[in-house]
Design a protein that fits this description.
Belongs to the acyl-CoA dehydrogenase family. The chain has 397 residues and is α+β, with helices and mostly antiparallel strands. The protein has helices at residues 7-23, 26-33, 41-49, 69-82, 88-102, 105-117, 131-134, 241-277, 289-316, 323-344, 356-370, 373-383, 390-396, and strands at residues 122-125, 154-159, 162-173, 180-187, 194-201, 207-212, 221-233, 279-280, 283-284. The chain is built from 13 helices and nine strands.
Length: 397
């Protein structure tokens, strides 16, 4: 692994940081969160038009930039620093890879160029609080969430000329504003239930979307109801949906790890700035040894998480398989950095007007959506058969 960045990667990071610094400050962030979409459409247009961010990891044949997921992960480190609310995660990290890997040529040619240009946003709708399991981050992707004869979630049935969907999904990232929904639904009835993915326009007849109040307002979520909605099957019926979701999950974990590292680094940076200025007993509180030790521990955690996240981002293009562990490390570092930031800011750290709580909510919200940390690590250990005896491994082989 070459740990140095290429000139192109450095340019992406520099340009994105400058843009977010000027367009996504604290005031702009809060104003965007209060809009119906939960993000600034003008900023999204600039991210798409000027930087090509939604198409960064899409092939040039479909209007993308042609970079790898590594560049997308490094770009998301900068969006994480600013807590930039945008449809980037839902569209470019979760939905677009599934369309690219499972979609027919006609579906890819129709949808991916519009996603790459930013004209079309998309969201992945997975029944229940099972997104981390569906992406094979905290459990096998072919587990109970995928149906297995169980009712609930979203059901699919054949109809004249296509498919019809009915059901409800409660936690869909950017589901209230996405122009396209990629819906995981059970098909085949009780005895032969299996999971397929379907394409549903966000404004289709029978689709009811309501934005939910979420712990982390910078990641808007929606409840999506599908009332006998006409849907298009994504790809072919015999496609291996769990395998495609697992591959997408490994990429998403690497991207999220970099994003969490960016948030943790910024939270630590803001705290260091504050303790240098805040005086108590006639001296800056940052000069006290206890404060130095606490911040040193946070720094070590952030740097360790950054190393893991960068390795996971590099590994995406070289076999992958370590995204879950890197995500666990990054989420833990982000939570610690945000919590220490609130504590060391003292009284103002607890106020609604200060930004410290936004970083803590991002860390806590991400762990609820994609974790928790101990399950990420436990599943990675189970997958690697880390705690099996040598005899058990020989039998398994």
């Amino acid at each position: 692994m070459d740990a140095s960045f290429t000139p192109e990667q450095d340019e992406i990071r520099r340009t994105l940081r400058e843009l977010l610094h000027s367009r996504c400050g604290p005031r702009e962030l809060r104003a965007a969160l209060d809009t119906p979409a939960g993000h600034d459409p003008a900023l999204w247009t600039e991210l798409a038009g000027r930087l090509g961010l939604p198409g960064l990891a899409l092939p040039e044949a479909y209007g993308g930039v042609g970079c790898s997921a590594t560049e997308l992960a490094l770009a998301c480190e900068e969006t994480g620093r600013a807590l930039a609310p945008s449809p980037l995660l839902a569209t470019a990290v979760l939905a677009a890879p599934l369309i690219g890997s499972l979609g027919t040529e006609a579906q890819r040619a129709d949808l991916l160029p519009r996603i790459a240009s930013g004209a079309l946003t998309a969201a992945l709708a997975v029944p229940g609080p099972a997104l981390a399991t569906a992406l094979a981050l905290t459990g096998p992707g072919d587990g109970d969430w995928a149906g297995g004869g169980r009712a609930g979630g979203v059901q699919a049935r054949r109809a004249a000329g296509g498919w019809r969907l009915y059901g409800q999904v409660d936690q869909v990232l950017d589901g209230h504003s996405a122009g396209l929904l990629v819906v995981a639904a059970h098909a085949g009835g009780f005895a032969r239930s299996r999971t397929l993915l379907f394409l549903v326009p966000g404004d289709a007849a029978g689709v009811v979307r309501v934005r939910q109040t979420a712990l982390d307002a910078t990641r808007p979520q929606a409840r999506v109801q599908l009332r006998d909605v006409e849907a298009e099957l994504l790809g072919e019926e015999g496609a291996d949906v769990p395998a495609a979701l697992s591959r997408t999950g490994d990429v998403a974990a690497a991207v999220l790890a970099c994003e969490a590292v960016g948030a943790a680094d910024r939270a630590l940076e803001r705290t260091v700035e504050y303790v240098k200025q805040r005086e108590q007993f006639g001296r800056a509180i940052g000069s006290f040894q206890a404060v130095k030790h606490r911040l040193a521990d946070v720094y070590v955690g952030v740097q360790a998480a950054r190393s893991a996240a960068y390795y996971a981002a590099w590994a995406v293009a070289h076999g992958g398989g370590v995204g879950g562990l890197a995500l666990a490390q990054a989420l833990e570092a982000s939570r610690t950095a945000a919590a220490e930031g609130i504590q060391l800011h003292g009284g103002i750290g607890f106020t609604w007007e200060h930004e410290a709580h936004l970083y803590f909510k991002r860390a806590a919200g991400d762990e609820l959506l994609f974790g928790p940390v101990h399950r990420l690590r436990a599943y990675a250990a189970d997958t690697a058969r880390l705690f099996e005896t040598s005899d058990a491994r020989e039998v398994a082989v």
